[in-house]
């Protein structure tokens, strides 16, 4: 059942030039990335009475819609939820809020992602390309995968993540972006290879999806967000 963390967050940083409302689904994640800020509170924590149903979340979005102009839907990994639940929720959001809707994803569910883009249920996607997947083999480079994303993907999952990145770039949404955390274990060469790959896909599809290399903040570091 789709559920949400009650601590909705208004942020000025996650989408440059916009005031955004960041919400988190409470349905787990298929990765455990190094330094994840959401793991203890949103992924490992047991759901309790404070969690919101999808209907309650939509009503809170409707009630505060005048305070922001973009909705950011995060997790955990939001797309681990059932496709039908995701579609129903986003359709209800469209009826409650007329601003931009952006989904955060790690790219492991390209089929669901393409469906949302094709149906116009989201305006953009912030997709994490945490490593240069196109260059790292899960067998030969398992230690790098384990260190950064906490798991070693199958070769099919690696293909899925690359397909999801390409789907986002092909869609070319105005609010979309590909992003990487500057993990302290990685050299600059890793990030340069990711940027080059994103540039190649943009050239291939005639797109302009930006690539962001975001600072690494230890989990205890404060973030400039306000609760709503």
TrEMBL record:
Boundaries of every Radical SAM core domain copy: 15-228
TM segment ranges: none
Keyword Iron: yes
Pfam families referenced in this protein's UniProt entry, alphabetically: Radical_SAM
Keyword annotations: Iron, Iron-sulfur, Metal-binding, S-adenosyl-L-methionine
Taxonomic superkingdom: Bacteria
Gene3D superfamilies associated with the record: Aldolase class I (3.20.20.70)
SUPFAM superfamilies per the UniProt record, alphabetical: Radical SAM enzymes (SSF102114)
Protein name per Swiss-Prot or TrEMBL: Radical SAM protein
Species, as recorded: Cohnella cellulosilytica
């Amino acid at each position: 059942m789709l559920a949400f963390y009650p601590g909705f967050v208004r942020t000025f940083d996650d989408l440059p030039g916009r005031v955004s409302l960041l919400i988190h689904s409470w349905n787990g994640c298929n990765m455990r990335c190094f330094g994840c800020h959401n793991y203890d509170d949103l992924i490992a924590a047991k759901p309790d009475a404070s969690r919101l149903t999808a209907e309650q979340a939509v009503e809170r979005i409707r009630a505060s819609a005048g305070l922001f102009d973009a909705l950011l839907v995060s997790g955990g990994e939001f797309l681990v939820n059932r496709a039908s639940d995701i579609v129903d929720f986003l359709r209800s959001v469209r009826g409650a809020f007329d601003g931009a809707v952006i989904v955060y994803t790690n790219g492991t569910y390209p089929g669901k992602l393409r469906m949302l883009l094709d149906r116009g249920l989201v305006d953009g996607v912030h997709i994490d390309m945490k490593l240069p997947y196109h260059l790292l083999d899960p067998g030969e480079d398992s230690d790098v995968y384990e260190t950064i994303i906490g798991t070693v993907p199958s070769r099919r999952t690696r293909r899925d993540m690359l397909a999801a990145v390409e789907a986002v770039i092909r869609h070319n949404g105005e609010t979309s972006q590909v992003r990487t955390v500057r993990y302290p274990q990685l050299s600059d060469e890793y990030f340069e290879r990711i940027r080059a790959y994103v540039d190649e896909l943009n050239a291939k599809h005639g797109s302009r999806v930006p690539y962001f290399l975001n600072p690494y903040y230890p989990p205890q570091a404060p973030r400039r967000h306000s609760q709503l």
